[in-house]
């Protein structure tokens, strides 16, 4: 990813609360069906996998296809089990793995 | 309606078809039939072979239960490149009773598989918000996979003025 993804979580939370996590990755999501000016097919380049774990435990994941819009936005939920960090991972066709770690402010 | 009021939700769910609904339904059916006769080309109910194959690959011999997934998508969009959507399902999200995944399908894009969203007990809520591409007017299908092996299937038709570019 050229630019780091944007992630939004609540400023503070408490144990047991279900919070919304909003993520926005910057990615062309090239479908592989388009052709360039010379009629040559542009190879597919999409983020195909997104995963979210909390302290190593899976929370949510998504397998994405070319039918997902460019700059994929994904919002999902976490039932806060306690203090700790969320680890978010995006993997694209070029093999680029973007990992972001977000600590939660559990009060 | 108060959102999240369980009493209201229950009432909505157990509502039985009344006389008025039957009349409305009959009227709507007559309208649809008339519409189909005059404009067979603009048929949003046509589903691609790719979609049928993808659905079969997911379900196998299982028969999905119709409805149950709340699909929040626009009824019409100018531009199919960027269609907001939210998919959610009421679920206690406990070990015994939770939503394992929601599969999102297009019935008219070149590729039928749009996305699969997988939940865990840590999700707390079976809900996801995203944005998809639509090549043309079509029905978008969501299939939810529950922990007891049941599949639920819902659809929402989106009228697309300009198709998503090169999907």
Q: What are the key terms here?
A:
heterodimer, A: 107 residues, mainly beta, Immunoglobulin-like, four-stranded antiparallel sheet, three-stranded antiparallel sheet, 7 strands, B: 167 residues, alpha+beta, 2 domains, six-stranded mixed sheet, 3 helices, 9 strands, 24% helix
Kindly describe this structure:
The complex is a heterodimer of chains A (107) and B (167). Chain A is mainly β and 107 residues long. Chain A has one domain (6-34, 41-103): Immunoglobulin-like (Sandwich). Chain A has strands at residues 6-8, 18-24, 47-54, 57-64, 73-79, 85-92, 97-103. Chain A is elongated, with a radius of gyration of 16 Å. The mean pLDDT of chain A is 96. By secondary structure, chain B is an alpha+beta fold. Chain B has 2 domains: 1-40, no CATH class; 45-162, SoxY domain (Immunoglobulin-like, Sandwich). Helix content of chain B is 24%, strand content 35%. Chain B has helices at residues 6-14, 19-38, 49-59; strands spanning 65-66, 70-72, 76-79, 83-89, 99-106, 113-119, 126-132, 138-146, 151-162. The longest helix of chain B has 20 residues, at 19-38. The radius of gyration of chain B is 17 Å and the shape is globular. Mean pLDDT of chain B is 83; it is low at 1-12 and 32-42. The chains are: A mainly beta (107), B alpha+beta (167). At the A-B interface, strand 4 and strand 5 of A face strand 6 and strand 7 of B. Strand 4 of chain A pairs antiparallel with strand 6 (113-119) of chain B.
């Amino acid at each position: 990813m050229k630019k780091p993804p944007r992630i939004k979580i609540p400023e503070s939370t408490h144990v047991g609360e279900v919070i919304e996590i909003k993520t926005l990755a910057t990615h062309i999501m090239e479908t592989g069906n388009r052709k360039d000016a010379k009629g040559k097919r542009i190879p597919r380049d999409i983020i195909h996998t997104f995963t979210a774990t909390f302290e190593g435990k899976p929370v949510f994941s998504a397998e994405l296809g070319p039918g997902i819009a460019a700059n994929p936005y994904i919002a999902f939920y976490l039932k806060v089990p306690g203090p700790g960090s969320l680890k978010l991972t995006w993997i694209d066709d070029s093999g680029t793995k973007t990992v972001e770690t977000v600590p939660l402010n559990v009060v | 309606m108060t959102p999240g009021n369980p009493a209201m939700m229950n009432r909505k769910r157990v509502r039985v078809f009344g006389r008025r609904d039957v009349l409305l339904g009959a009227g709507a059916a007559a309208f649809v039939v008339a519409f189909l006769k005059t404009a067979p080309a603009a048929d949003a109910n046509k589903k691609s072979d790719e979609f049928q194959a993808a659905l079969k690959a997911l379900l196998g011999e299982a028969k999905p239960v119709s409805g149950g997934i709340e699909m929040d998508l626009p009824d019409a969009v100018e531009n199919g490149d960027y269609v907001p959507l939210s998919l959610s399902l009421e679920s206690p999200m406990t070990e015994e009773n939770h939503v394992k995944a929601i599969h999102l399908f297009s019935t008219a894009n070149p590729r039928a598989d749009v996305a699969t969203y997988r939940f865990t007990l840590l999700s707390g809520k079976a809900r996801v918000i995203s944005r998809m591409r639509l090549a043309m007017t079509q029905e978008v299908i969501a299939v939810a996979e529950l922990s007891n092996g049941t599949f639920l299937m819902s659809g929402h038709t989106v009228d697309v003025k300009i198709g998503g570019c090169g999907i």
